[in-house]
């Protein structure tokens, strides 16, 4: 059976390009994104720009106030500290639940991260990084844990943009996550929980 492929809409394409630029740090936090300028730069109508921006606002990457241009969300050091305050107990639950298990989807995300070319945009690294941790959360099998984790996704992704300066050698990031997944598989449970805690105990690099 032939399944026709649906072309990517202009809204989806523009949202994807803006997402890539935000998550690669090309568009810095706090930057305003006027509709008229984006319309001229990308050669699309303003309604298309408006819809694309709405997608990223919904994802938490942009913030929009009435009668003002959308802006890239700024995540402060205090925000990131509070983010980790909440993530640590959630990730501890993940480690305790998955100790002794291998999660194929997480291994797949790590393999894709390792296979990225040296010149791949940092947004591709962010995507696989998020996919790896999301796969671990999903493997626990708790819908409520998934919802809690999803609520932190936007700030986590924006925080990961800052890690770019801490990992000029991407192989180091890959090695750290390979060690993390191997530690979760190892027993006893306490070793997995300790490995996850240590993995989350890092600085966030330059803003």
UniProtKB/TrEMBL annotation:
<dbReference type="InterPro" id="IPR000524">
    <property type="entry name" value="Tscrpt_reg_HTH_GntR"/>
</dbReference>
<dbReference type="InterPro" id="IPR036388">
    <property type="entry name" value="WH-like_DNA-bd_sf"/>
</dbReference>
<dbReference type="InterPro" id="IPR011711">
    <property type="entry name" value="GntR_C"/>
</dbReference>
<dbReference type="InterPro" id="IPR036390">
    <property type="entry name" value="WH_DNA-bd_sf"/>
</dbReference>
<keyword id="KW-0804">Transcription</keyword>
<feature type="domain" description="HTH gntR-type">
    <location>
        <begin position="8"/>
        <end position="75"/>
    </location>
</feature>
<dbReference type="Pfam" id="PF07729">
    <property type="entry name" value="FCD"/>
</dbReference>
<dbReference type="Pfam" id="PF00392">
    <property type="entry name" value="GntR"/>
</dbReference>
<dbReference type="InterPro" id="IPR008920">
    <property type="entry name" value="TF_FadR/GntR_C"/>
</dbReference>
<keyword id="KW-0238">DNA-binding</keyword>
<keyword id="KW-0805">Transcription regulation</keyword>
<protein>
    <submittedName>
        <fullName>GntR family transcriptional regulator</fullName>
    </submittedName>
</protein>
